[in-house]
Amino acid sequence: MTEQDSKPKPYPALRNIQYSPMMQGEEHYIILWDPSGLSSEKLIIPLNLFHLFQFMDGEHSPEQIGVEYLKKFGEFLMPDKLDRLIADLDEKLFLEGERYEEAKAAAVKAYRDAPARNPRFAGKSYEAEPQKLREQVAGFFSSKEGPSPDPSEHQGKAIKGLVAPNYEVNVAGPIYAWAYKELREAEAPDVYILLGTAHAGLAGPVAVTDKDFESPLGVVPVNRPLMEALRSKGGDALFADELRHETEHSIEFQLPFLQETVGARQSISIIPILSLFPPGCLIDPSLKDVADQVERFVVVLKDAIAASGQRVCFLASANLAHIGLRYGDDKAPTDFSFHRCMQTDLEMLKHVENVDAQGFAEFLLKEQDRRHVLGFSAIYLLLRLIEAEKGEVLRYDREIVDQFNSTITYASAAFF
């Protein structure tokens, strides 16, 4: 046996792949896709094969995975069928391994070489043609679901922060408009710090990029003095996972509103930050390293802001609850369960209005992630960083996202 033959063969290890149930006639299937966008492929598999994915963790051989299938269903899974499934997953970049690493390295190079971060979702989630986009944004403000045309009671005040949805702009645009109306009528800051939600996951709790962002309405530049202060104080580690910005929609969806409400009358600049960490990191000893990184980032960003001498506005791009089969629940939501979810959301948002980061986190800890509030990290960072005494929830809404009544909730809020 050669040295190469003696090396253990790598076992299939599934990446952070998202899934959703679907039906064709009476048959149940699972559709899989890569939320990071590195792979544009999708895979539809029968429900019984989805059972095997929990064992594709790099610790189980194909033979062991076959044994788990036998235990569950009482029948053998032909080895060639399992081999084809594993090969298909690898080809679609759904597995860890050499093929994935090569594709990731090429994507990182392409991102760094690009002059700006491109508007990936223009023409899909919002209008791509500049004039049509301006008309679309204006229509959100005049929509019956949008904000009142009357002046805000905060008009002319220095705005400290906003919470806005990151759901599809085509759908949730009027709810975005509630937040951006406050921004349009407020005293403008020097720089906008965009705290996005990283839906595809992150290697660490935050990922910063120094790329300018392009939208159909033009390029929104990064604020270079503040960015350099942030890099100086936080180091290159803050930028290690910046590729996530390339395919994440959370920050991109805010840009047309920011450009139309403020950029139409003065120059604007941003600091783009993605985040993803659970409230459990604040109490779980096994997640202490994550909590320490979050604390260090809060200190570093505050110090960088102070060193830059600029006035900032924090903008958290975050949805709230995710309930239903699509998000791992064992049954579809009903009108009653949604009403209960809404009541819980509004109770949770009281902590946000009170700028109570600790209370916000403790509320979700008590819930034990039952409602999958994915926007926790962005809102938590805003509450830790913002220098405001009070916030106000302006509008709350929801959207049903699939045939099984799976639901996402979101809200707009402002802080002065």
Walkthrough of the structure:
This protein is α+β, with helices and mostly antiparallel strands. The protein folds into two domains: 3-105, Alpha-Beta Complex (Outer Surface Protein A, domain 3), CATH 3.90.930; 123-415, Protocatechuate 4,5-dioxygenase, Chain B. The chain has helices at residues 3-6, 47-50, 62-73, 79-91, 98-113, 130-142, 169-185, 224-234, 244-247, 255-263, 288-308, 335-353, 357-367, 376-385, and strands at residues 18-24, 27-33, 42-46, 161-164, 191-197, 206-208, 213-215, 218-220, 270-275, 312-317, 322-323, 391-400, 407-415. Strands 4, 5, 6, 9, 10, 11, 12 and 13 form an eight-stranded mixed β-sheet that branches. A three-stranded antiparallel β-sheet has the order 1-2-3. Helix 6 (130-142) packs across helix 7 (169-185), helix 12 (335-353) runs antiparallel to helix 13 (357-367) and helix 13 runs antiparallel to helix 14. The protein starts with a helix and ends with a strand.
